[in-house]
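step: validate -> pass
step: tokenize input -> pass
step: predict -> running
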Amino acid sequence: MKTRILITTLIISLAITTQAYASTTISPTPNAAMTNQINQLKAKIASQVSKLNLVEKRGVIGTIQGISDNQITLTTINGNIQYIDLDEITKFSSAGSQSFGLSDLKKGMQISVLGIYNKESQRILARYVDTVTVPTRYTGEISAIDGKKFQLTIATANGKSAKVAIDTSSAIVSYSGGASLNQYGFSKLNIGDRVEVIGYPDKTNASLLIAARMIDYLDAPKDPQISIVTPAPSPTIAPASSGAKAIKPVK
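step: predict -> pass
step: emit ->
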């Protein structure tokens, strides 16, 4: 009897062990070729991520200093040198021109560039190149006013002067503290006023600036670096009556 019970127990244990072993899944280990492919894929992904971190979209405005078949050298509005690379998909445009290309660019032209900036080489691969007219800005004091021509002469701190014309498109405002600007007029401008002007060169006279916007800082103190010479008024001589001697002014 005991022998029969022992045999039955052994049979049940063997059946349970066999079933448990059969339900166990053995994962195949990857071979060397598969491991190599996985490592190569990881390296490619890491390389692409690194390249993406090195580039960004960037725009710049400047004056052309040099041109070659695949490169433009710019002096930016901040005075820095920027190298622009060109390729076969770089697009060129200019206002008023239907067919504008690399051959139309000249030294001294002002252009805007939009492209891909490489942080490592610090160069821009241009995607769009467009000619622009950058506004000119002057800060100084009014040294002369021509009411007939609606023109001003502005003396700057570097000892230079600029001719400025006011036309119907010019906006003149004043600032006297606070947060707001107030509308102003040409007739209210005075010699010695501290002003800031932004405008564009006249198409027929490059030495004349057409003001787009002018701010008159009414309460600003005089700039000690700017010297304005105000001409002394000419003495007037009273007309002499018939037979009387003319009276000369006392010096």
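step: describe -> Helices lie at 2-23, 32-54.
step: cleanup -> pass
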